[in-house]
Amino acid sequence: MPTTTTSPCLPCLFCQIANSSTSTSLLHQDDRVVAFQDIKPAAFRHYLVIPVHHISTVNDLKRRPEDYSLVSHMLNVGKILLEQDAPKSINYSKHFIERRTSHT
What sign results for the dihedral spanned by CA atoms 82, 85, 90, 91? Predict the structure, then answer.
C-alpha cells in the first residue's frame, strides 16, 4: 500500500478536508475519496478529488491493482461530478499534485 495514514494529519490541509475537519463543502464523499471545489479555480468547474488516506505524491503509488483501482475511482468521481454539473461538457483534464506537509 502507498504511504498513507488513517488519522488526520494536522499539518496537511487535504487530510483535514478528507476527514471533515474543515468547513469545506464536499461534493462527493465515500470510503476512498472526497471531492470539493477548488478555492482558486483555474476553470469555471474545477473540482479536486483526493484520496481519504494520505498519499504524499503520485510516486508513492505502485503498479498494483489497488493503486490502479484508486486512481480509476478518482477519475470516475471527477467525470460523474462534471456530467452532473455540465452534462454537455466534452472536455476535462486531470492533474496529480503532491501533498506538501511536514510529515512527508
Answer: negative
Number of CB atoms found within 10 A of residue 64's CB: 11
Q: Could you tell me the three cell numbers for 57?
A: 505524491
CA distances from 1 to 13, 20, 52, 86 (A): 22, 23, 14, 35
- Annotate 23-89 with DSSP letters as a single string: SPPEEEE-SSEEEEE-SS-SSSS-EEEEESS----GGG--SSHHHHHHHHHHHHHHHHHHHHH-TT-
**C-alpha 90, offset from chain centre:** 21
Any idea which residue has 510516486 for its cell? 59
40-78 pLDDT, tens digit each: 888 778 889 999 999 988 888 898 999 999 999 999 999
Q: In terms of pLDDT, which residue wins out, 43 or 81?
A: 81
For residue 8, give the DSSP letter: -
Please provide the size of the chain in residues.
104
